[in-house]
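Hey forum,

I'm writing up a methods section and want to include a predicted complex as supplementary material. The small molecule is zinc ion. I've pasted the protein sequence and the SMILES. Can someone with a working setup run it? I'll credit the forum in the acknowledgements.
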Amino acid sequence: MRALCVTVDLDRDVNIPIPGSNAAGSADRGNGTAPRFSSSERGLSLLADLFDELSIKATFFAEAATLRRTDAGKLSGHEVGVHGVDHEDFTLIKGADEKRAILREAVDTVKDAVGKPPGCFRSPYMKADQETIDMLPEFGIRIDSSRHTEMASSLIPKYTDSRVLDIPVPEGRDAGGKKISAYLWPMHESKRGPEDYLRMASVMEEGAFVIATHTWHMVESRERGLMSKDEAERNADNVRKVLEGIMDMDMRPSTMTDVRKELADERRTAPLGGKVIGHRDPVTGKIELFDDNKKKG
Ligand SMILES: [Zn+2]
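Reply by user p_vandermeer:
Happy to help. Structure tokens for the complex are below, copy them as they are.
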């Protein structure tokens, strides 16, 4: 498998945690930290057009409050997963019941908006606790993308104990030895160029390379505020260069659910160490040995 997972967090503009509140705010541009959604909406339009043009099926992790304000038609043809209701930090939510209530509302909102139950989850701020991950299957969610992983030649996603497939965002070192994550954040802030990400992707021989960004970051910089038309065009051009460059490396654009299916297919057909000794569960990857191979006595 050589998959490129283009993932986009569809959430409130330049979100920031608000102390004492579960709900996130937006960076203060002179009118306080109340959540704003207009950059997110404009960025979604730009990305949807770009993905159309490049024939990319992406995975959007949609925060419920943002999704309710979004024209869901722009997400058609893409996968839509869960990203909380109000961009909650799940590691600060006390008690399983409250986490369940948030996940239930988030899942129902996605279902209502796009007509399909979500199959994947990314925790806001990339901060997920094990309790939250463990409860995802209760909501029909079998994929989590809330973690980072060390960049390597093999990035085959793995199942965790909770029967959730972990499709992490890679991070590694750039040519100068500085830490780099496959979140395009610094590129949107004019601190990195497309070549940094292409160099990073070129390391992978097999697996799923996950690129991540935010809709609002197409038109608004965290540090500089709203982008000028020229800036936004340069920004979009850089995103295009990253995506085209990675596709030129023969990585196939795939949604997270595509990756899970492909993995299950490979497992079903792969020989088990040359000799067929049992049946491998396509979902958990665990091997149920045939009776002959079970330990005697
Ligand atoms: Zn987010």
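Some notes you might quote in the supplement: The chain is about 30% helix and 20% strand. The radius of gyration is 20 Å.
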